[in-house]
UniProtKB/TrEMBL annotation:
<dbReference type="InterPro" id="IPR005301">
    <property type="entry name" value="MOB_kinase_act_fam"/>
</dbReference>
<dbReference type="Pfam" id="PF03637">
    <property type="entry name" value="Mob1_phocein"/>
</dbReference>
<protein>
    <recommendedName>
        <fullName>MOB kinase activator-like 1A</fullName>
    </recommendedName>
</protein>
<dbReference type="InterPro" id="IPR036703">
    <property type="entry name" value="MOB_kinase_act_sf"/>
</dbReference>
Amino acid sequence: MTKELLSSCRYEYRWADGVQIKKPIEVSAPKYVEYLMDWIEGQLDNESLFPQKLGTPFPPNFKDVVNTIFKRLFRVYAHIYHSHFQKIVSLKEEAHLNTCFKHFILFTNEFGLIDKKELAPLQELIESIIVPY
């Protein structure tokens, strides 16, 4: 999701998992989140990607898989902040959302999990979280 996409009047969500849905299809935001959570669950349950036995090595593509998971999760945060933040504020839950997002961004930043250009839609918020020392 790019800055241009977020600032446009119409939002477009496309999903492809590379297995069941090979060519990206246009879906609603709730459907994108549903597909994403199911896909992440499948990745986490896949012992060839996330070994359960102590001493079993992670696969060579492990970081790529984790990068994709985090990139897609970031898109959900971007959607929440852009489309639902006023509702979050009305529920007085913005501190909780901001804390979760801060932990997400700090972890992402620490391990270089998302390319900087992917973070552009929430760059101002991210810059307020990551204060240079």
